[in-house]
Specification:
alpha/beta; five-stranded mixed sheet; 11 strands; six-stranded parallel sheet; single chain
Length: 218
């Protein structure tokens, strides 16, 4: 029998989690649990807030428009997010949503949109990014919600990279064919990593030179 309950729905909440703790559900959460999933009084929901680990909670329904969850016991201790900064050129909505989901599944600790010279999207909805990150975390089982950082120009993003951070530069023009080989020489470095991915049109020669000049760039 699996140690983890893959059948119980998972829900991200803002409330502090502790034994016997009770907290209400907002309209969207209530609709999801009661109308979409068809949960009943007393059913189990796994809840997490990114701080207190994951808890088994019991659904208490009070009428058609009100419900709450009651924490029973902690099933997983809180894990700390990786020091993994994912830098990316913004995409259009549907593609950006998908990218955020996959970054969360990879374990990214922070997501930051970066405007390069060839970036095609001029605006980023940070609230939408956070909502997508939360949804991805609920679905894939991670306990830490990545930080959604404000969008910055390319130069500011590069200048903010610390000297001791390994910068994995996803350059389509690199002569290295195997990324595993490129990274193998750096396997013993400190666990601070940044991954930088460019726009659909690729990085300019100036941008590639700027990133390549970073200490610890691969």
């Amino acid at each position: 029998m699996a140690l983890y309950d893959f059948d119980a729905p998972r829900l991200f909440v803002e409330a502090t989690l502790s034994p016997g703790g009770r907290f209400g559900l907002d309209r969207n959460q209530l609709n999801y649990l009661v109308n979409v999933l068809r949960l009943r009084m007393g059913d189990t929901v796994l809840v997490f807030n990114g701080r207190d680990g994951e808890w088994r909670a019991e659904l208490r329904i009070e009428g058609r428009r009100q419900a709450e969850l009651v924490c029973r016991d902690r099933v997983r201790e809180q894990t700390q997010p990786l020091d993994f900064l994912y830098l990316f050129a913004p995409l259009k909505h549907a593609r950006l949503d998908y990218m955020v989901q996959k970054a969360v599944e990879m374990g990214a600790g922070a997501l930051q949109p970066v405007y390069t010279q060839r970036t095609q999207s001029s605006r980023v909805n940070l609230e939408r990014m956070r909502a997508n990150a939360i949804e991805a975390a609920e679905q894939c089982g991670v306990l830490a919600i990545p930080e959604i950082r404000p969008d910055v120009p390319f130069t500011a993003a590069v200048e903010s990279l610390e000297p001791d951070r390994l910068v994995v530069f996803c350059d389509e023009d690199t002569p290295v064919a195997n990324p595993i080989e490129a990274l193998s020489a750096h396997r013993n470095r400190k666990a601070k990593v940044a991954v930088m991915v460019g726009p659909e049109g690729g990085f300019t020669a100036e941008e590639r030179a700027r990133v390549a000049a970073c200490e610890g760039c691969v």
